[in-house]
Amino acid sequence: MANFILSAFADEASQNIREQIAACKANGITHIELRALDGGRSINEIAPDEARQLKATLDEAGIGVSAIGSGYGKIEITDDFEPHFSAFQNTVEVAKILGTRNIRLFSFYFTRGESYAQYRGEVIRRLEAFCDYAALHGIRCCHENECGIYGDTAERCLDLHRALGEKLGGIFDPANFIHSGEQILPSYDLLEPYIDYMHVKDARFSDGVVTPAGEGDAQYTELLRRFDRKDGDRFLTLEPHLAVFEGLEQLEQHGGSTALLQGRTAYRYASNIEAFCAAADALHRQIRLVRGEPGMTHPHLQGRVAVVTGAGGVLCSGFAKDLAAQGAKVAILDLNAQAAQKVADEIAYLGGTAIAVSCNVLEPESLAAARQTILETFGTCDLLINGAGGNSPLGTTSKETLELSDLAEKAEGVKTFFDLDPKGIEFVFNLNFLGTLLTTQCFAKDMIGKDGVCILNVSSMNAYRPLTKIPAYSAAKAAVSNFTQFMAVHFADVGIRVNAIAPGFFATNQNQKLLFNEDGSLTPRSDKIISHTPLRRFGVPADLTGALLFLCDETYSAFITGVVLPVDGGFSAYSGV
Ligand SMILES: NC(=O)c1ccc[n+]([C@@H]2O[C@H](COP(=O)([O-])OP(=O)(O)OC[C@H]3O[C@@H](n4cnc5c(N)ncnc54)[C@H](O)[C@@H]3O)[C@@H](O)[C@H]2O)c1
């Protein structure tokens, strides 16, 4: 896990340094990326004495400098390099005085139709000159992708990093990649080894509008999750760009993002400070989505889309509530729309996020409609819990074993193996097995390529060894366990883990009468169950919470797939002797 350090281009709040500091402090930002000062002067222009004064002011306020936001490399590749390079030498001095190890730079504009191949060598020569000079002074140059420069696509950024290796740090600006038409997550995956800094800035593909992080097309939460996989200090640098602020045009003389902002009305704020605060709020929200609210035990599940079938029922409503308590957005799917709505309302009452979706897991059209509703409300599925299941009296014998007398002269109410109704067997098989298969067919495609996704099926004790009287339910749950292993193997290469929970005997409202006599004593079947359960009790829904969260949260179970985890008080371990 990374140690996130928050920084900002606070010149977007104000050019006055004291106001920049105040904006950072008011928004929980500890570092600053220095770029523009009073009157729109660039940090590159200041003399050593002024840099020393600036350092004293920042020290007094307890604000560090993460990098110099230099703008070097934002000239045409055909422009004269020498004056640019000598100005850079002053910036290195300034960086040393300000106590930062980093200078941001860019890889030269190609706006006059020059060929990338023709000038590739020159781009690398110039960047190497910057890097080598800076390194002599203990400073590192970090390249930021930007629209219209050599490094405007992930491929060409990769080319630069491969050519310059350790000399060049990497800054990932998702909004600038969107402006260059690049897909964000594949670009990040390509560049991940080289990225030290993450820009906090988002944008829309449709019209280029810059948005607060998480509101554009950068898939910012997932991007930040991936960035969080890197250990060590990692800067998250806010560059709101939500409203054109005084002086931006001078700083970005060649267009780039500024040109894209002109004339846009979305995400404009009444003042620069207001825009800065909105961007900072979005940053904090993104961090909470990745790291969780204080006290949350499974932050990795926060913001995930969980689809839980049978969630109007006893055990799966518990699953839905457990996931919602971890910040997941939960879709409550159930044949019983009222029961589903009740669970969704309870989750909402507790401050969670859920929708009830009426759905029959045995009908592909019903599943497809549910998927569409979920897509429109929450997005694609991350966690699929196949919980809808159960038994039917039509697939149940009345006695544990066959007695000869029942064949000769059957007493009233006796149902033998030979009386089992194939329709009943089919119903139970369909509900437990086919319902799991069809639901997975509907949702698993959307999970492919996403991080931290998994499927959790619900098996049962009777899958290990059949229970008496319920052959259809036992065989159907055995099929679910078997199918769990099949899917774990089948989906391994596309990144979906598949596991199952096998609950033991849970005392729920619906089996109250089977388990307990009117006076509260155990029925003979319950007696047998408890005497074969080493922990000497029935389960309660909360006993499943740990197993559910453990198997769903890849922080704990990334290397676990294909297991059927008994939660049974030891029932499956005990031979009865
Ligand atoms: N209760 C136990 O002791 C126990 C033990 C082991 C396994 N299980 C399994 O746990 C899961 C949940 O069991 P429960 O005890 O909470 O049962 P439950 O009856 O309380 O819940 C099952 C839910 O599934 C819904 N459902 C039924 N058919 C459906 C369909 N075609 N499409 C969509 N929804 C449908 C029902 O409306 C109900 O809300 C089931 O798979 C069950 O087999 C339960």
Chart the SSEs and their pairings.
Elements: E1 2-8, H1 17-26, E2 31-34, E3 36-37, E4 41-42, H2 48-61, E5 64-72, H3 82-98, E6 102-105, H4 116-136, E7 140-144, H5 154-164, E8 168-172, H6 174-179, H7 184-191, E9 195-200, E10 202-203, E11 210-211, H8 220-227, E12 232-238, H9 248-251, H10 257-261, H11 272-291, E13 305-309, H12 314-325, E14 329-334, H13 337-349, E15 353-358, H14 364-377, E16 383-386, H15 404-408, H16 422-447, E17 454-458, H17 471-490, E18 497-503, H18 512-515, H19 524-531, H20 545-552, H21 554-557, E19 564-567
Parallel strand pairs: 1-2, 1-12, 2-5, 5-6, 6-7, 7-8, 8-9, 9-12, 13-14, 13-16, 14-15, 16-17, 17-18, 18-19
Antiparallel strand pairs: 3-4, 10-11
Helix pairs in contact: 2-3, 3-4, 5-7, 8-11, 12-13, 14-16, 16-17
Bound molecules: nicotinamide-adenine-dinucleotide.
Please outline what is shown here.
With 577 residues, the chain is α/β, with parallel strands linked by helices.
Describe this structure in words.
By secondary structure, the protein is of the alpha/beta class. The protein has three domains: 3-290, TIM Barrel; 293-504 and 542-570, NAD(P)-binding Rossmann-like Domain (Rossmann fold); 510-538, no CATH class. It is built from 21 helices and 19 strands. The protein has helices at 17-26, 48-61, 82-98, 116-136, 154-164, 174-179, 184-191, 220-227, 248-251, 257-261, 272-291, 314-325, 337-349, 364-377, 404-408, 422-447, 471-490, 512-515, 524-531, 545-552, 554-557, and strands at residues 2-8, 31-34, 36-37, 41-42, 64-72, 102-105, 140-144, 168-172, 195-200, 202-203, 210-211, 232-238, 305-309, 329-334, 353-358, 383-386, 454-458, 497-503, 564-567. Helix 2 packs parallel to helix 3 (82-98). Bound molecules: nicotinamide-adenine-dinucleotide.
